[in-house]
Amino acid sequence: MAFVTANWNPLGEAFYRKIELYEMGWNLKDGLRECLVAAAPYGGPIALLKEPQRRSPSVRPQLEIYSSSGVAMASFPWKSGVVKQLGWTVCDDLLCIQEDGTVLIYDLFGNFKRHFSMGNEVGQSQVVEAKVFHSPYGTGVAIVTGASRFTLATNIDDLKLRRLPEVPGLQGAPTCWAVLTQDRQSKVLVATGADLFILDYTACTAVSPPGLSPQATSIVHMCVSFSYKYLALFTDSGHLWMGTANLKQLNVCVTFFFASDRHFIPSYHFSWCRRPKSQQPSVVIMWDGHILVAGECKNTISYHLEGVSILVPELDGVRIINGTHHELLQEVPASCEEIFKIASMAPGALLLEAHKEYEKESQKADEYLREIKEQNLLGEAVKQCVEAAGHELEAETQKTLLRAASFGKCFLSNFPPEPFVSMCRDLRVLNAVRDYTVGIPLTHTQFKQMTVQVLIDRLVYRKLYPLAIEICRYLKTPEYQGVSRVLKHWACCKVQQKEEADEVIARAISLKLGEAAGISYSEIATKAYECGRTELAIKLLEFEPRSGEQVPLLLKMKRSQLALSKAIESGDTDLVYTVVTYLKNEMNRGDFFMTLRNQPVALSLYRQFCKHQEQDTLKDLFNQDDDHQELGNFYVKASYKEKAQIGHLQSAVDEYNKAKNEFAAKATEEEMRLLRFQKKLEEEKGESLVGFSLHDTIRTLLAVGLHKHAEQLYKDFRVPDKRYWWLKLTALAEKEDWEEIEKFAKSKKSPIGYLPFVEICVKHHNKYEAKKYVSRVTPEQKVKAHLAVGDLEGAADAAIERRNDGEISTVLSRCSPSTDRALVERLNRAKATAAKK
């Protein structure tokens, strides 16, 4: 703690510090000399291509991938073309851009993933220089060819190549150039001598930075800030221009004495060093074994470098990597400056001193606390200590600051605990991933920008599954976003281990995943199938509880029989239909039908489908199964839809006979007889009867007066007497042919009695005709008949004669006490007499 400010250097109103992150674990004899190097941001991995220009087939360049601490992750000889640039995507995939315009993509462990080309014309003119950049759309690649043409790909995952307009007067490679991201569009800023041009998709526009020294004859270097908001230009006259990336606002323009020595200029490396919300712009210039930090003021900060180094821009500083060390150069955060600055009287500084005195059991602790409380700044002091702890990389310094914050909280009654608790959790996670064996040197600012989910993804991508799971559990991340997601990635990696048997891997995955929420075994099985391990994929699918996830993959693996069984077990008819449709398209007709015969449920569902969609297929199914009963039914249904009715019905009779269904065969034959009769009558009389039922045919014939033909049907088809009398009575009454009804009633004794005659006449509002049949009604129905025609006297006489209490009561209910008084008295007397007996 006594030496916290030992590595601080002032620049204007701010301080800068250079912190050692790691002593590199790699063993590079010549350091980074003759190496093409690319380091991913946010403490990402480092790629080295040793001697990239070597073209001898016997001795090839070596591509190596390390963690930020120098721990080897991958190494393999480079067997492809000459590499012009290395870079990393936002997902930590390595991009290798070759001079022929081909971009090869490798994962973190050197496994080839895919490649793409930056255009056919690039192969002829060759790539002179390339840059990898990050835009709101993802990772992009920009190149300039020997023909002085720029090509841009804003997102390599959705490749759309843009060939930018020509730069006026440009011959060969430009002096320097950079990619800008403005208004969600990527542009290229090009310097040719002292002239600047902005290239977008449609035009080349000349621009002039405000305040740039007129002494400059050439802009030799430029760099864009990590956020793409700011731009720095360096000229051959030694002038440094810093401003906004849109070139509309100047922040500062300063001159450096060493720049006049022109032979240093080509070896410059340039990077912004600006933390978020900082009011002071600053850049880092590296040349000839030195680093210079320049800002608004005339002064600079100089550091000596050991060996060849590279600068890696970060959100809140610059990482410096050389053959032996990995360091972070950044502006000292405001909270750290206020607490640790010499003679600081900030609340956080006083609280830290108070805690130190408290640990010494000194009364000065109370004096410091009183001073803070008198200014009502104790809450601010705690906040400063918590925030400063997040910006410190040494665990002991973090603990000291957090203890001071905890000490201050004891004297506050309403200070929210969340910031303190959250910082403790964040620091524990950050200290874990900063460990040498992990090698992700994130600052707290970077961690908050990155988010926990992305950090977990990066750990998973590096196969650090135990650490990822512990962090998820410690931060209490929802299981489906945390532990389950990590376990799924672990399982997908596990299935790629070809040295282990399928049974062993399947058992291990099942035991590890158990009942973890949100894990789809089908996704793991898909990965196994993609790796050529079909049997393992099938074993893994046995653990998948959702049939809807099992079936599509089984079909993809050509395991259609198993897919059909799983679909049937699920009880999901839509899923069964999906499999059946797939089988129909993939198999020949005979094999398809035989497959369905072994699965009755699938066969039944397919028949239902065919009934509505494919009638001919349904017929083939019945033929395949020799199902004569269903074939007969099929022909009967077909007879209603097609003109060849007799032919279909005859086929149905034949099938019913084969099925030994005598009733169905006889009923169908009678239907054929009826059809022939209807067609003959239609031809002779012009009455449209084809398709009518026997009942409707007789009724229609009676209605149109064809009584003889109706009689013939009645006899030929042995229609029951009662049904025929009812049909004829109803048909004649609808025609109001009362004379014919009377003849019909006298023709012979009615099998339905004569009450229907009374009721039909009353129904058609003819009581006069109805009364003719009342006398012929049986005694049991006479009361009802008299009441139907409105004859109360007759009904009373019939009821009294039969001495039926129920009938007497029925007649009484229809009488009116005022108009039928005598009749009511008579009925009451009869009712009383009947009751006595």
From TrEMBL:
<keyword id="KW-0813">Transport</keyword>
<keyword id="KW-0458">Lysosome</keyword>
<comment type="function">
    <text>Plays a role in vesicle-mediated protein trafficking to lysosomal compartments including the endocytic membrane transport and autophagic pathways. Believed to act as a core component of the putative HOPS and CORVET endosomal tethering complexes.</text>
</comment>
<comment type="subunit">
    <text>Core component of at least two putative endosomal tethering complexes, the homotypic fusion and vacuole protein sorting (HOPS) complex and the class C core vacuole/endosome tethering (CORVET) complex. Their common core is composed of the class C Vps proteins VPS11, VPS16, VPS18 and VPS33A, which in HOPS further associates with VPS39 and VPS41 and in CORVET with VPS8 and TGFBRAP1. Interacts with RAB5C. Interacts with STX17, MON1B. Associates with adapter protein complex 3 (AP-3) and clathrin:AP-3 complexes.</text>
</comment>
<dbReference type="GO" id="GO:0031902">
    <property type="term" value="C:late endosome membrane"/>
</dbReference>
<keyword id="KW-0472">Membrane</keyword>
<dbReference type="Pfam" id="PF04840">
    <property type="entry name" value="Vps16_C"/>
</dbReference>
<dbReference type="GO" id="GO:0016197">
    <property type="term" value="P:endosomal transport"/>
</dbReference>
<protein>
    <recommendedName>
        <fullName>Vacuolar protein sorting-associated protein 16 homolog</fullName>
    </recommendedName>
</protein>
<dbReference type="GO" id="GO:0006886">
    <property type="term" value="P:intracellular protein transport"/>
</dbReference>
<dbReference type="InterPro" id="IPR016534">
    <property type="entry name" value="VPS16"/>
</dbReference>
<dbReference type="GO" id="GO:0030897">
    <property type="term" value="C:HOPS complex"/>
</dbReference>
<dbReference type="GO" id="GO:0005765">
    <property type="term" value="C:lysosomal membrane"/>
</dbReference>
<dbReference type="InterPro" id="IPR038132">
    <property type="entry name" value="Vps16_C_sf"/>
</dbReference>
<dbReference type="InterPro" id="IPR036322">
    <property type="entry name" value="WD40_repeat_dom_sf"/>
</dbReference>
<comment type="similarity">
    <text>Belongs to the VPS16 family.</text>
</comment>
<keyword id="KW-0175">Coiled coil</keyword>
<keyword id="KW-0967">Endosome</keyword>
<dbReference type="InterPro" id="IPR006926">
    <property type="entry name" value="Vps16_N"/>
</dbReference>
<dbReference type="Pfam" id="PF04841">
    <property type="entry name" value="Vps16_N"/>
</dbReference>
<dbReference type="GO" id="GO:0003779">
    <property type="term" value="F:actin binding"/>
</dbReference>
<dbReference type="GO" id="GO:0042144">
    <property type="term" value="P:vacuole fusion, non-autophagic"/>
</dbReference>
<feature type="domain" description="Vps16 N-terminal">
    <location>
        <begin position="5"/>
        <end position="421"/>
    </location>
</feature>
<keyword id="KW-0653">Protein transport</keyword>
<dbReference type="InterPro" id="IPR006925">
    <property type="entry name" value="Vps16_C"/>
</dbReference>
<feature type="coiled-coil region">
    <location>
        <begin position="351"/>
        <end position="378"/>
    </location>
</feature>
<feature type="domain" description="Vps16 C-terminal">
    <location>
        <begin position="519"/>
        <end position="831"/>
    </location>
</feature>
<dbReference type="GO" id="GO:0033263">
    <property type="term" value="C:CORVET complex"/>
</dbReference>
